[in-house]
Amino acid sequence: MKTTVTEVDPADLEVEESNDLEASDGDEETQERIFGPRVKLTVEVDQETFDEAIEKAFRKIAQDVRVPGFRKGKAPRPVLESHIGTEYARAQALEDAIPGYYADAVRAEAVDVIAAPDLSLTSGEEEGPVAFEAVVETRPIISVAGYADIDVEVPKPAPSDEEVQEQLDVQRRQSAELVDVERPASLGDQVSIDIQGTVDGEALPGLTADDYLYSVGSGGIVEEVDEQLQGAEAGDELSFSASHPVQDDVTIDFMIKVQGVKEEVLPELTDEWVEENTEHDTVEELRSETIQRMTMMRIFQANAAMRENTATALAELVEDSVPDSMVNGEMSEQLQQLAMRLQGQGMNLETWMQMTGQDPESFTQELREAAERSAKVDLALRAIATTENIEVDDDDIEEELERMAEQFQTTAPDLRRQIDDEGDGLGPIEAEIGKRKALEWLVAEVNLVDEEGNTVDRGEMELPDLTEAESDEASDSVTVDQDQPQTEDNQEQDDEK
User: Fold this and answer.
1) 305/454 same-domain check
2) I need a surface site. Which of 69, 233, 254, 445 has the fewest CB within 10 A?
């Protein structure tokens, strides 16, 4: 099999693409599509190779064609030829074999395809060797300027005194006393209320209760409840309406009677209290442990933010337009992964959108923006890997194959054989490794700043030696907002694509 690769002049396709847009959009306002560079693969298949495909086609046909005197699937080829002719088998062979020939050509020529090909048979439909052309859209190669000088914001690795005290207060609050007070309620107070929530005169399940103890400012119901309770006193009766937290077109009518106001009184932070209520003996020990725990958590958060925000800043440097096929592919992958996560939680996409208050249009727009960002990061990291001569060696590939093999419960040699026989070769894996190494290089080069724009010392980002349990605990503290469309198994993978 012989393959020739030639570049395609975009001008040759302008008329065709214009017609496609008119046909698909009708009377609606058309939007110009963005394409990547395209090449044409001219593939010539020799007679001997295609004869093998014809032989396979006859074996396939034999399974479906009943020939008198032969069991199903046992009729020899000469008998089948005399029974159905050769045209049908040749057509079957073309249908079955050309996709494989195309895949082999793409793999052999290392063409970085990003969309389905436009295939056309040029010879061999009726007899002789087979030849076909495939016009394919490929991943663009871009350049990115200024990537080593970007500022990347990360949380301050060290907690402030106020944050430490807040954490200590959280522990003190577990032993807090509630004291009745004769004053208007304020944030943090506990109020005893009789509450009734109705929709069109019908009681709403879960919003009707007597002597319900509610923390003002907690946001446990809707924000209007907290607003109304601030400044309310015992004996006050409140009547107001609020939008449903999930269903925008539904209004909830509230009736609340304030029975009493209670103030939360925290115990004094003393050595005696610490010894009785914690695993420590003194206030100093408790404070020191709190600082250490918070510091580890903040360092984990800072390192996660460093990678995520570096990728975000990198995407903003990309001035080139991203091909629609890359964006659509990213969207499809993100949507599939979100659906799988939701399925694991026992819900579908529609239910999740209702719970998060998202409409299909805004969700799709957010999904597209995330996909476009991911595609830009993909192109930019590839560009950096090339510019900075970041190489992927055999050890890198072998390590990645070992990791993948463990994930798929197989062996690295078996996985390599499967990739060679059925996949796209090692090229995509090598590219992913290169992007990952490019991101690691970039993370080490960017300028780290805190929320106030002050330079962050990288030494403060290094974690102390941790036990496995301590590391897991700190990692669990780094969360991802599940209300936003996520595009990879984890954010790091998302940034590397």
Assistant:
1) yes
2) 69
